[in-house]
Amino acid sequence: MANVTVYNMEGNEVGTMELNDAVFGVEINEHLVHLAVVRQLANKRQGTQKAKGRSEVSGGGRKPWRQKGTGHARQGSIRAAQWKGGGVIWAPTPRDYSVKMNKKERRAALRSALTSKVQDNKLIVLDSLTLSEIKTKEMQRVLNNIKAGKALVVTAADDKNVLLSARNIQDVLTATPATINVYDVMKYNTLVLTQDAVKCIEEVYA
What we know:
This protein is an alpha/beta fold. It has two domains: 2-44 and 101-205, Ribosomal Protein L4, Chain: A (3-Layer(aba) Sandwich), CATH 3.40.1370; 46-96, no CATH class. Helices cover 33% and strands 15% of the residues. The chain is built from seven helices and six strands; from the N terminus they run ββαααβαβαβαβα. Strands 2-1-3-6-4-5 form a six-stranded mixed beta sheet, with helices on both faces. The radius of gyration is 27 Å and the shape is elongated. The two termini are 13 Å apart.
């Protein structure tokens, strides 16, 4: 099992913690990580874009002039795509962009993402993260103490003070073990976990 240093909110070392290899020490599957990221980004798309095709634009029911003898190019409708106000060629229509991924694959992808943070020394474990009041400056001070820049901060449970204190800090996102996902883990340079959060993640994904 991998051992990581545990820090307090002042940035001082207060001990070590063993990480479960079934979650933080697996063989990294880059393909599954890629699929998980594609799935999440695709599922965010609304798919509501719409433009009218030639058959949907009003008007244009008759031929604008006879086929021959006018000197003009032949035309069948004033709502053809080359006319002003005409329909759009291959017009976009509402569609479902969602991508499906098996539960086992999603869990394996998250384990791979967590393992990559451990291998890259981008995982920081805190003994606890509690704030007495909602104060962005205090949250920023804690992040500076542990040298976490663009960070995903995961706590064992929703903490209103931590959530609201971190909300206005650029490039910082908070989450719980139930809401972490591969995209966020890979997007942020540093993954900050409390000890309780580590235990929760190991219980769920081991």
